[in-house]
Design goal:
Distance between the termini: 45 Å
Strand content: 25-35%
CATH class of the largest domain: Alpha Beta
Number of strands: 15
Largest sheet: 8 strands, parallel, barrel
Shape: globular
Number of helices: 10
Order of helices and strands: EEEEHEEEHEHEHEHEHEHEHEHEH
CATH architecture of the largest domain: Alpha-Beta Barrel
CATH topology of the largest domain: TIM Barrel
Oligomer: single chain
CATH superfamily of the largest domain: Aldolase class I
Helix content: 25-40%
């Protein structure tokens, strides 16, 4: 890791779902972009000590409690960086731009990737994405589909994947248009589990790739302004997803599922092993429900993804 510039990064939140950001000077690397405050580690300095020192110098506040959030390795053309990101749980003082930099509290929902250095992309996704990811399940007709989708969204589901494998392309498009309209009403993000061609004609929040689709393409199929979700089962598939700059990974199966009886789950230890070096949010899939959220987060997951646990729940 010696060839990386090791940087301690602070995620400082207030009670209004706002995060503190500062503006980089125009004459430095990635100048003119907003960033999460922090700075380089000094020789033999721990990450926590560097975080406290940098935040005191930059913002004139004293960190009282902080916890690791995620690590990100990123290669710019001119340098490699390792971002050691911590979430600040409590601090003392009122933040000011002590070094003359502009600072502001920014709504998490209003953070825009294009306004930040590229290495910050997965931090923004992790902050904006919920801990529950619902995949649509069975329904009898359009009215039943609408009822189940709206019922789930009323229960605070805000990230949905539209999965309808048995439907024709035209039927899927009809469902997708209805789901897009409903999700927009509830402020939820909708990902489409469909082909690139179908997706390109619909104003959804993102595209989901099955592992079969993942292995059939060589470059990211959608704009980086949209969300790319990918199903992975192995380390090789995870590496391929990262090459495509995936924004979300569904790692499965964690437990045995009713849809694949007899297929043994990888378990939490293997889940943690496979996901610990993934920069982007990872959801545990396979036999999951809201009751598994604590175990999932304790093993490095953003949260859990489920069909039955959320669609029928």
């Amino acid at each position: 890791m010696s060839d990386y510039v090791h940087v301690a990064v602070a995620i400082i939140l207030n009670k209004n779902r706002e995060v503190l950001v500062s503006l980089r000077a125009k004459d430095v690397h990635q100048g003119g972009l907003w960033e999460f405050p922090g700075g380089k580690l000094e020789k033999n300095e721990s990450v926590y000590d560097a975080l406290k020192r940098e935040i005191d110098e930059e913002l004139n506040i004293n960190i009282l409690k902080a916890a690791p959030f995620k690590k990100i390795e990123f290669n710019y053309t001119e340098k490699k960086v390792l971002l050691d990101v911590w979430k600040i749980e409590s601090f003392m003082g009122e933040p000011i731009g002590s070094e003359g930099q502009k600072i502001k509290w920014q709504s998490i929902d209003d953070l825009r990737i294009e306004n930040f250095p590229a290495a910050n992309r997965s931090i923004i996704h992790s902050l904006q994405l919920p801990d529950r990811y619902m995949i649509t399940g069975s329904f009898t007709d359009l009215d039943d589909f609408i009822f189940k989708l709206e019922n789930s969204l009323k229960k605070s589901i805000s990230l949905v994947q539209l999965r309808c494998k048995k439907y024709s392309e035209s039927e899927y498009i009809e469902l997708a248009n209805k789901a897009i309209s409903i999700c927009q009403q509830f402020g939820a993000k909708l990902l489409l589990n469909t082909s690139e061609e179908v997706f390109s004609g619909l104003p959804a929040s993102g595209l989901h790739l099955t592992s079969q689709m993942l292995n059939s393409i060589q470059c990211r199929p959608i704009s980086e302004e949209l969300l790319l979700s990918v199903s992975c089962h192995t380390d090789e598939e995870i590496k391929k997803a990262m090459q495509l700059k995936a924004d979300i990974i569904l790692l499965s199966p964690v437990k045995e599922t009713t849809s694949h009886p007899g297929v043994k789950g990888i378990g939490w230890n293997q889940f943690k092993y496979l996901s610990e070096n993934i920069e982007v949010p990872v959801y545990a899939l396979g036999g999951m429900s809201a009751e598994d959220l604590t175990d999932a987060k304790n093993n490095g997951a953003q949260g859990v993804a489920a069909i039955t646990g959320f669609w029928e729940g």
